[in-house]
Design goal:
By secondary structure, the protein is an alpha+beta fold. The protein is 31% helix and 19% strand. The protein starts with a strand and ends in a 5-residue tail after the last strand.
Amino acid sequence: MSLQLHPSHNRLETEADFTAHAGTATQQPPLPEGGIPRQWLPALIRWPIRVIMLPFVLLDLGAQWIARKIIRPPYRQTGHCYQRGNCCHYVLLPEPKGPITRLFYFWHTQVNGFFRRRSEPIESGGKKMVVMGCRYLQKDGRCGHYRLRPTLCRQWPLIEYFGPPRILKGCGFRAEENSIRK
C-alpha cells in the first residue's frame, strides 16, 4: 500500500483507505504493530496540564480570529464537520531532531495523546515528517476529548493567509474565495 501526501494538505492519506473514509462509513486504518503504545506520563499529570493550558489555547485562537477580521485571508471556511475522524487518522508532525522539535513531539505524544502510526518518517514539503494518529478517536469518528482537544485539532481545516487552504477530501468543510469589497 502506498502512502501519499496530497500537495495542498498537511495530513496524510492512503489511496485505498482514505477513499473508504470519504464514504458514509468510517473505518480506521490499521494500528501500528503491537497496537497503540501506552503514554508513560500519568493521567493525573496529563489532564491538569491540558486544563491549565486551555485558557492560553483559547486566547491564542481568539487573537487569530481578531487578526482574520482585520486582515482577511483570501479564502473563507464554509460547511461543517461530518465527524468522520478523517483528519484524526493521519496527522503529520515534524520529525523530532533538535530540542524544540523533541519537546513538541513529547507534548503531542504524552500530553495530547497522539501516537506514532508509522516507524519511519515521510517527506512532505521538503521536510521529514512523522505520521501520527489520535488515541482519543472513537469508533464512530467522534473525538473522545472534544472540549480539551489540542490546538492542532481546533485549527483544522487550515485557511491560511498565504498558500492554498488545507482541507481533506471527504471533509464537510470547504474553502471559498472571499469577495473583494470595493
